[in-house]
Structures are given as C-alpha cells and as structure tokens.
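Support reply, case 0932

Customer input (verbatim):
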Amino acid sequence: MTTHFSIIGATVNPINKAIVSFVKLLPKPVVYLFAKKYIAGEKLDDAVRVVKELNEKGIVATMDVLGEAVTSKAECEQAKIECLQVLDVIDKHKLNSNLSLKPTQLGLVIDPEFCYQQITEILERAKSYNNFVRIDMEDSPTTDATISMYIRLREKYNNVGIVIQSYLKRTLDDVKKPELTGTNYRLCKGIYIEPEEIAFKSKQKVRDNFLDVLNYLLDNGNYVGIATHDDYLINNAYEMIKKKQIPKDKFEFQMLYGVKERLRDKINADGYKIRIYVPFGEHWYKYSIRRLQENPNMAWHITKSIITFN
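Our regenerated output:
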C-alpha cells in the first residue's frame, strides 16, 4: 500500500488505459525508464541526494521507504529498521526533511499492538532528533484503525501527524472529532478504488469536499499540508489562505517527487512552504505502476519516452 496524491475523476483515454496494461507487461528495467522520474532510487543514498538538491532550492521533503504487502512480523521489523535509518541519516546530513510511514508496513493488519510499539520506537527516535513523523492513510478497511492508532500515539507524542483523504465521504466528520483538534494533517484527494457508498466518484465532488475540509481545518486551529497537484485546488487554497489571513506557520503545500515541477517551483517562488514526498527503495515497481494507474494520461508520454529512448 502506498500514499495518496491521486488524480480522481480525470478523463481517461481508452488508448492510455491500453498502454497502462501494456506497460505492466514490460520487463522491469524498461518500466524503470519512467519510474526513475518519480522515485529517488533504490537506495537511501539516492534519497539523500534528492533531498539535498531540493533543500538547496529552499524546498523541504518527507522521505518514504517503499514497501507493501507485508505478511510477517519479521518484514515489519525490517521496515522499522529502515525507518530508523532514515531518521538517522536526516540528522547526520542535517536535511530539512521528515519521515512518512505506512502503518500496514509496520504491522497494523497483522497485530495492531505490535504496530503501535513499532511506531512508538520510531517516534522516540524522531523525538530525539526534534523531527516529525507522518502516518499515511491507506485504503478504507484500515481507516478506523489508522485514526485510532494516531489518536493513541498523540496522547504521548506531539511530533506525529496523519493523512486524510477528501474522496471519502466520511472525512469531514472525522476531522470534527474532538480527539483530533489541533492535529497536523496532510490533506489529499485519495488514491484507492473504493465503493460508491463511501467515496465520491466525481472529480468535482472530490474537489468540493477537499475545499470544505480545508476550510474547516484552517478555521479550527490545525496545521495543514495541502497535498495536491490540482491547479484548481491550489488556486482556491491560495484565495482561502489570503481571505482568512492564515499565518504561514499554519500550513504548507505538498507534492510528489517528479510531478508538476513547474507548479512546485511557482509555489516556492510565491513564498509558500512546499514539501516534496520523496519515495525510495527496492520496492519501487508497485509504487510506479500505481502512479501510472492513477494518472493514465501519463501513459502516452511514457510510451513516447520508451520509443525514443536510445
């Protein structure tokens, strides 16, 4: 499972959908031709290099160790070790970056109490470095467990935040829970395919809910990472921030590595804090295919790159 800056409701060309299917049949080295634009690389050193480059431009980051479909506690413990290494390296190189993690990768589905202990150890390490950890939100079967985990962790730690998804109909009600007042959020659209009973399917309805949730969060003392590549949402967020006179220490914009870099640079030039999600690791393949599936319109550009590659 992965994190979530999805393009919901975008018009999908049938040809692009066919190309997506075609790309999934290609050998991994060929897929890597487009994947390398959206991941830092396979090694932690690759992520350090990318974050340094971003920091030199005045852009901050969050680093994520890719991985999913964890089936054993041993795999979860290895994921924890990798998260701890990320925090160590951030401190060693004095990077302006925090850490994002996936609760299922750390054992949420296998054993919630085990997962809690795993994340506690990571938060302790982050606290020792005066750093911050973001708990990603995954698909709907884990939403309640993730929120409950976050609430429990927040009782002890103030260096932890959570992700919420505007394509879920429940989200506005979730953020109104008293236990979540003053939370540090990443607000995104959402990526997973969910039933119509619980998720908006219209692009505009997802946008509208995004703005409704953002409006509530800004009015009620929360910190918000406004995570989107959607010009419409960014323009509306600009207007909302100016109208409400929200201080710059109460929000930031967030985007994925390798996506809409001109827009990223514009936000940075406009004087707003912009954080880039920097994924890395040996499990890059599934992440890359998901990026392609959520935005099939990239498929034609990828195919052209493969055709012209020499």
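We compared this against your earlier run and they match. Two observations from our side: The chain has one domain: 14-308. The first helix runs from residue 14 to 24. Please reopen the case if you see a mismatch on your end.
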